[in-house]
Amino acid sequence: MDYGLIMAELSSGNLPFYNRKHNLTLALDLCNELRPEFGKETPEFYKKLAYRCMNANPNQRPTTEELCGILNF
Q1: Residue 1 has pLDDT above 70, yes or no
Q2: Distance separating alpha carbons of residues 8 and 44, to the nearest angstrom
Q3: Are 1 and 61 in contact (CB under 8 A)?
Q4: Backbone angles phi, psi at 49, to 5 degrees
Q5: With contact defined as beta carbons under 8 Å apart, do 53 and 9 qualify?
Q6: pTM (predicted TM-score)
Q7: Are residues 52 and 62 in contact, defined by beta-carbon separation less than 8 angstroms?
Q8: Long-range pairs for 33-38 at CB < 8 Å and ≥24 separation?
Q9: Per-residue pLDDT tens over the stretch 62-72
Q10: I need a labelling partner for 33 at 20 to 30 A (CA). Which of 2, 5, 60, 71 fits?
Q11: How far is Cα of residue 41 from the mean position of the Cα atoms in its chain?
């Protein structure tokens, strides 16, 4: 999930959820699949990869090897 958050930060230029209190409400929203916003001109493939990295189910996230392969492509 961390890599997807970094991708969102690079895209938007802001820390994820910079405009929200970091409290139990945010934590619950994240558990209910709230995800950070991306910059307006972010390519769709980039967002899809970031969302895969932020999947609530760790088994659905790309492995390090898969991620390296995608980024090297």
Answers
A1: no
A2: 12
A3: yes
A4: -65, -45
A5: no
A6: 0.84
A7: yes
A8: 35/4, 35/8, 36/5, 36/8, 36/9, 36/12, 37/8, 37/12, 38/8, 38/11, 38/12
A9: 999 999 999 89
A10: 71
A11: 16
